[in-house]
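To assess whether the prediction recovers the assembly geometry, we first specified each molecular entity separately, as shown.
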Amino acid sequence: MVLKKSTKIISAIVVIAIVLGLVVSVTADRPWTSYGYDWFNETYPVQSGYVVDRIITSSELGLTTPMRSPRDVFVYESGDEVSIFIVDADNDRIIITDENFEDVRELKTFEYSDDYKVENFLPRPDVSGNIAPDDVDAYWAEVGKIGTQTTLRGPTGIFVQNFRGETRVYIADHHNERVIACDLDGKIWMEYRRPDPESFDPNASFRPSKVLADAAGNVYVCLTTITQGAVVFNEDGGFRGFYGANRVIQGATARLNYFLRFFMSREMMARRVRPTPIEFSNFTIDNDQFIYTVTETRGENVGIVKKINPSGQDVFSEEGKDDWIWGAFMSPYVYGRTFMSMMVDISVDEKGDIYLLDRESGQVFQYDKEGYLMFVFGGKGEQKGLFTAPVSVETHNGKVYVLDSTKNSLTVFKPTEFGELVLEAMSLFNRGLYEESMKPWEEVLKRDANYYMAYNGMGNAKLSVGDFDEALSYFYLHSSFGYQRAFKDFRIHYMRENFNRILAVAVAAVALIAVTHFTIKFIRKRKAKS
Amino acid sequence: MVYDLQLTAWKWPFYLVRHPFEGFEDLRWKKGYNMKVALAMVLAFFLITVAQARMTGFLFDTNYVKVFNVVPYFSSTVLIFFVWVIGNWSLCTLFNGEGTLKAICCTSAYAWLPYMESMIIYTVASNILLPREGMFLTFITILGLVWSIVMMISGMKAIHQYSVPKTLLAIILTLVAMVIILFIVVLLVALFQQIYIFFYTIYTELLYRFN
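The predicted structure of the complete assembly is given in tokenized form:
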């Protein structure tokens, strides 16, 4: 077979192009499928909102001892300086690094400094004014601690806060049964320990798993061993109460107990098993001092995510989102239940977007502040961007950090171009700037006509300029609630515009009917007469 | 009873809606049963059910519109109607009922008129109302349904010349009979399918043998 030289060259180019194309397409692909939920809560593909920016391992950080099952990550911003804290549980240390992961240091030993507030441990007189000698001894023991050093044992949580100019670090020291409050150099100024027996069950263990502090300096400690909620301490270590307990599920046990109460005595009832609420597993606080809790449960109607205001009410519940489905689920038209999602951590960014980390599927679910799903990314597996045991999620400046406790790595996600468009449109939309959000939404729809939230946004934009027909046709595609608002306005508007015409037609119709009726009667009467 | 009542066939159902109690006695006395009208009403019932499924306003539409299949609507109106008629006839002939098959068919068809009207109102009004005004629609639907049930009981009482308790018992037993009929039908279909598969297997076997 003889081929022309040009044919040979062309075929060679084609072959090379195909090979290159294959290579390129493989590297450009993400190891997860990006999806959303449509009107019928069935999955549909959408463009990816996030890609892996970089993956940080122990060697990349230049650590001499590699990380062993890290449990928590926290991103802290003060001024223009950003620090990232990683709680390395099995090595009993805190790793502190900057945004670019260049400047790395460890916090391993902590010192009771001169700032250690021993006055918080001063013995308090009881009701009759006596001071127990044990309390005096305990106070002197605290005083004796000043200048000594201490280490962590299995820390599991960290929270860093800018409290009126000073940086406060709170560490949940799990096995030492305490929360230590120190500064960035490890100088302890306060310790939060098990409350008095009269306020906290002495049989329950006090092992803090997560910790956070609000703007007033109150410290919230999440324990996975009690169901009353988080333990709240005053700034000076006084027990303040419990916070944010979940509801009891009204299941079979609760109903049976209610029924049996009519027949059984108090003593008999006391011996029965009582249903208890599921304890929440993690929490976070946003800039407006709302505390978000997340509960590891599967399909039970307990409010997997709760947004609790300072007076202790669940905002999502007030908004009627009690049975809101968070995380992965199957269509209620097919299965009618959620499945498999076990939310292990939650993070809220400065715009109010909620990020949930699903331990079971390894996915991060990004919701806007109203609870509408924006993006799903990540997954279970060994490839880049997938996890084997994700434990913690954090967000800062548009980037999402996910910590994996068996891969011992921190994965950084950044939004794609499409993701940035959606985020921009969403942020304008949530601030109520509907007309301004129209342009980015149109751009989003150009890139992915499947992105249903864009139709909702376009509908609102059109409604705010009074274009009812367009608004209705956009809402028709995704939003029943939006359609309802648009339709209500449209109805009033239509009646105002056309009232005279409608009235005229109605009067004419009534007159016509009456006239024909009487005419027929009249004709019949005449016929009957003749 | 109105002895000098003269009505054309298609006007009877509308008269019955306005006179649900003595109207059926009139119908029996005047022999106003008309199969054409009855079958047209059954067909209309089917069409209205489909129209309601397809044309309910967006805000009231809870149907899964990704897949629309007309067969369930057909079987839940037309099929179930004839099963009811056959069940009632076979039961009431044994229970000293005086109604003929034609009478049962016409009465049952005429009795559903109020419900059909309420469905039409629902479909039209759901395009105008908001969900929070939906209680009017619920009210109209319930009204139509209750009216139809009252007409059905009254009609059954009139054509079979039963007392009220016996009518109610007959209706409950008719429902049981319907379940039995449907069970037997399903059983028969399954058996015939087996027979069909048996012969089809022989046929394919022969094909393989002789090719």
